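Hey, sorry for the delay on this. The queue was backed up all week. Below are the sequences that define the complex (chains, strands and the ligand SMILES where applicable).
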Amino acid sequence: MSPIAPGGPRLVDGRDEPPVRIPNFPYIVLRPAEGRMAARDWKTGEKRRNREQQGGLTMARVALVTGGTRGIGAAISVALHKAGRKVVANYAGNTAAAEAFTAETGIPTIRFDAGDFAACEAAVARIIEEHGAIEILVNNAGITRDGTMARMSRDMWDQVIDTNLGSCFNLCKLTFDGMKSKKFGRVVNIGSINGQAGQYGQVNYAAAKSGIHGFTKALAQEGARFGITVNAIAPGYVDTEMVRAVPEDVLVKIVARIPMGRLGHAEDIARGVAFLTADEGDFITGSTLSINGGQHMY
Ligand SMILES: NC(=O)c1ccc[n+]([C@@H]2O[C@H](COP(=O)([O-])OP(=O)(O)OC[C@H]3O[C@@H](n4cnc5c(N)ncnc54)[C@H](OP(=O)(O)O)[C@@H]3O)[C@@H](O)[C@H]2O)c1
């Protein structure tokens, strides 16, 4: 017979719920409402009022998704919206796509260049004023300007570095203090398989995406003691307009190298973002989640 584990049944939300014991591990006692108990004061058992709870109402956390109106970003915005977040989706210039996105999803959008620090500063101030402090940041905005070294201009280099990597600095810089003061933050930076493995004709893109992975690990170390997690996702080839720009014969060769035998869907990446930004995900930081159908493993 198993010895009785200390503690016994605990009063949870006015009801006695018996603890669950695991056979052969009598010293482990799972309490059915462990998660709910965690939100109580450990001495008095009273429910803790967190900063989001005012008068019994839970305020949704504000999430900013850069490049959040098309492709992978649109799927991320929708996934976070479905997870109960108050999402604001950013875009660069395609207003028609942004308007269609809002009409379909009800998610508000904001136009600014994520690679431009001054533009980000004005936008973050506006979002805070209209929606509240940003607690979840998804740095997804990205572009490609491909060409071999012989053909790559300095301008193609700068555009890709500024949009893909500079945007991560800009928006983390502008939101990090707010997250610190809330003692909560979730940052997800969208890298790429090509930042992990390199790609012919993409020194700019591979450098920017590889930079994102280093940036993520460094910032994760700064955020940890403030309850801020910083993670990256490295998508493989995902069926969006960016990939549709790749010539058909090249795409066929790419798909042949994907063990799962298909391109990724934007939702495959969005699920990863929802996982990494969950309130419960507070022990996952500095990691890079590869979502690539098995194309690159290391
Ligand atoms: N698709 C893939 O296979 C793949 C693979 C690995 C990584 N990724 C990465 O995943 C992210 C999303 O890619 P995607 O394929 O979904 O791209 P996409 O379909 O081309 O959509 C890009 C989004 O980013 C926005 N954007 C571009 N430049 C911006 C800027 N300077 N400021 C603000 N927003 C900007 C666009 O706004 P507008 O609508 O106004 O143009 C659009 O909403 C990128 O970081 C990309 O590098 C993609």
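The longest strand covers residues 228-235.

I'll add it to the shared folder too.

S.
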